[in-house]
Amino acid sequence: MDFSLTEDQRMMQESLSRTLAEAASLDRVRKFAGDPTDRGADVWAALTDFGLPGIVISEEYGGLGLTLLDAALMSEALGRAVAPVPFMGTVLAPLALRLAGSAEQQSKWLPKLASGEVTAAVAISEAVAGARDGAGVTASGGKLSGKALFVPGGLGADLLIVADTGGALHLVEGGAAGLTREIMTGIDLTRRMAELTFDKVAAEPLTGGKDVLARLRDAGWVLLAADTLGACDVMIEKAVAYAKERKQFGRVIGSFQAVKHLCAEMAAELEPCRSLVWYAGYAFDAAPDESSLVAAHAKAHLSEVSRFIARTSTEVHGGMGITDLLGLHFWFKRVGLNRQLLGGPERVRALAAQMQGLTA
Amino acid sequence: MDLRLTPDMESFRDEVRGFLVAHQDRYAPGAGADRPREAAMEWQALLIDNGYAARTIPQAYGGYGAQPDILKSRIIAEEFTAAGAPRGFANQGISMLVPTLLEVGSEEQKTRWISPTLRGETVWCQGYSEPGAGSDLANLQTKAVEDGEDFLISGQKIWTSTAAQADMIFCLVRTEPQAPKHDGISYILFPMTTPGIEVRPLKTMTGSAEFNEVFFTDVRVPQSAVVGGRGRGWFVANATLKHERGMLGDPNATEARFAALIDLMKSETVDGQRLIDNPVMADRLMALQARLMTMKFNGLRTLTASMTGESAGMAGMVVKLQGCELNHQIAALAIDALGELGVLYEDGPHLRAKGSWQRNYMFDLGLIIGGGTAQIQKNIISERGLGLPREPKLAVV
Ligand SMILES: Cc1cc2nc3c(=O)[nH]c(=O)nc-3n(C[C@H](O)[C@H](O)[C@H](O)COP(=O)(O)OP(=O)(O)OC[C@H]3O[C@@H](n4cnc5c(N)ncnc54)[C@H](O)[C@@H]3O)c2cc1C
């Protein structure tokens, strides 16, 4: 029994953080946020050198062949850096191909995904979080029609994995005729989402139905929870550092108990979450029976804790916390988006109750 | 991360399960605040003899004498929780005095006190807090004045749990009034029947007298009853306070309580609708389940740290604060689920679970305060965990 990260996992996480510190510095993030045409190609190139695109792709196809826990640790580092890359498709698309793709589809796409030559995005929001504004994609005669909203990384992706209203999955090439994409700008400018419109777009079916979709959803929940965890860590670190240096009434504000207790509450709320995220990542591969429930709880609970931390960290910073100058808002908004993507906490908890047969 | 157990550990788990099934008819709840009854003492003896209680305490002192094996202890805890089997005694004598004696007691003190404490024959109370020394415990004023071979102890303690039932007290007294406040304290053991001791029950909001005020007037105690050396009491007490805090946030106990809450919400109905089918209630239940999971996995993480001899750091510091709060929240949800039934307290046809949810809800608030309040825990987390400065000392006026 060993509930800890391996030396390899720790080293890999640190090494990604170092890569990101250079390739996705706060200045670089700021520039990305200010320019909707910026696709962050240089950041992606650095991550490709690191091997990130192949993280869960088997070695046979040129990937690293690692587990979802490893991917979650990477996601955490990306959240820490508020890195301007959509990571979800990088993990979920290869998973979809592994679980439900034909041998042909796998050998066509996986090597290219692993090398970073092509990127992928998954459009499963309606199927998981529910359809808004009449969105939803229907399949008929090998063609897709309808709309998919809130697709992270969907603007530039060469490959799209799309869930239809019945929960079946389809593979669509980025250049397919009848597909149009539009930017959806949200509060979190470090990741842009797409609105995809399908007008009789040619698609290849993936085998497997709702069970595969559920696996993708679970993996997505874990990655979002991990990204949130990383972002929360930074918000606490920033609050503590600020409290040690900012002076009022002739003392550093960190010596006031009101401020100390805010910091302690943030740390006390977050620390046990780290264990939940690790376990959720581990369970995805090692304990599939429990995986959906712990993934749901990780997603929903981290959303709640992060809202508290985002608010509290900002308050500890006083007026500075609200300014664009400090940049704390990048993390604030990052966790804000993570909270809603693939379902807000109430929806996810309702699913958690159903999974256990507690409710109908 | 690899949570699989070795075949050895799996067979140990089977062994524990086997024991629990075989002795199902002898389960007896462990004594908490009360003097243990005969059935509880027999169950305790059975647990000790089989290594499920007092596991690592040397046989010479009445324990089972196994090598420390944190994983085995964990398996025992898990299996007992899963079976709903009582874990034996969890009183202050066992959780605080015994580890203290093992660490710093004299040979004579260990031989004399550990075994009867483990078996429930000797019941202890903890005389730390005073009216003017709660959170600021080092400020305690109960004085012990030398008189030949003895001390004469005078002063007052308060919040002393089980003092009315206890045979003995482990008590902090000031022996060196001139010394700085942390250096003048001694940790001393004496019988509650010693002349000059008066115990006055303090009723709590639960309606029973779970703790007491204790008054000392020239209580004569031999100096040889000091544990760990004269003037060393503060360090002696602190060495074991962490045991109390770890125990107060134990996720195993919380898990059992959560399972009971699920059962309650499945069986209770309002207008024919099960509480669990009320979306707001189900949502609150799930939110607590997530918290419970965080604490459970946090427990596995601290367990791994102690197995490898590392410090659990922040993961260890948050256990008391978060664990006690979670227990209180679980009881709070149960009361809301019970609605008007949740305010009943006297025995009667409508009372559920003998009023234990109501009692827990109130008593858990006490546990949030006892053993170091939530605020004191936050001071520890922010100062020792996050490195924030201590509050400046007041200028003495
Ligand atoms: C159920 C129960 C059982 C107990 N059993 C025992 C026992 O068996 N033996 C024993 O010796 N004691 C026992 N205690 C006493 C317990 O240890 C104290 O109640 C506790 O340490 C708090 O002290 P106090 O009650 O004097 O509160 P105070 O110290 O007066 O605190 C009052 C409030 O002020 C806050 N406060 C105090 N100092 C600070 C600070 N520095 N920073 C921020 N906030 C502060 C506290 O957090 C609290 O909110 C028990 C208490 C309870 C509730």
TrEMBL record, chain A:
InterPro entries attached to this UniProt entry: Acyl-CoA_Oxase/DH_mid-dom_sf, AcylCo_DH-like_C, AcylCo_DH/oxidase_C, AcylCoA_DH/ox_N, AcylCoA_DH/ox_N_sf, AcylCoA_DH/oxidase_NM_dom_sf
UniProt domain Acyl-CoA dehydrogenase/oxidase C-terminal: residue ranges: 222-347
Recorded superkingdom: Bacteria
Cofactor(s) of this protein: FAD
UniProt KW Flavoprotein keyword: yes
GO molecular function annotation: acyl-CoA dehydrogenase activity; flavin adenine dinucleotide binding
Location of the Acyl-CoA dehydrogenase/oxidase N-terminal domain: 6-117
UniProtKB keywords: FAD, Flavoprotein, Oxidoreductase
Any Pfam family: Acyl-CoA_dh_1
Family listed: Belongs to the acyl-CoA dehydrogenase family.
PANTHER family: ACYL-COA DEHYDROGENASE (PTHR43884), ACYL-COA DEHYDROGENASE FADE28 (PTHR43884:SF20)
Protein name: Acyl-CoA/acyl-ACP dehydrogenase
The organism's taxonomic lineage, starting at the top: Bacteria, Pseudomonadati, Pseudomonadota, Alphaproteobacteria, Caulobacterales
Automatic annotation (TrEMBL), chain B:
InterPro entries (alphabetical): Acyl-CoA_Oxase/DH_mid-dom, Acyl-CoA_Oxase/DH_mid-dom_sf, AcylCo_DH-like_C, AcylCo_DH/oxidase_C, AcylCoA_DH/ox_N, AcylCoA_DH/ox_N_sf, AcylCoA_DH/oxidase_NM_dom_sf, Mycobact_Acyl-CoA_DH
Gene3D superfamilies recorded: Acyl-CoA dehydrogenase/oxidase, N-terminal domain (1.10.540.10), Butyryl-CoA Dehydrogenase, subunit A, domain 2 (2.40.110.10), Butyryl-CoA Dehydrogenase, subunit A, domain 3 (1.20.140.10)
Acyl-CoA dehydrogenase/oxidase N-terminal domain ranges (all copies): 6-121
GO molecular function, one term: flavin adenine dinucleotide binding
Keywords: FAD, Flavoprotein, Oxidoreductase
CC annotations in GO: plasma membrane
Pfam families associated with the record: Acyl-CoA_dh_1, Acyl-CoA_dh_M, Acyl-CoA_dh_N
Limits of the Acyl-CoA oxidase/dehydrogenase middle domain: 125-219
Cofactor: FAD
UniProt domain Acyl-CoA dehydrogenase/oxidase C-terminal: residue ranges: 231-385
Assigned protein family: Belongs to the acyl-CoA dehydrogenase family.
PANTHER family in the cross-refs: ACYL-COA DEHYDROGENASE, ACYL-COA DEHYDROGENASE FADE29
Protein name listed in UniProt: Acyl-CoA dehydrogenase family protein
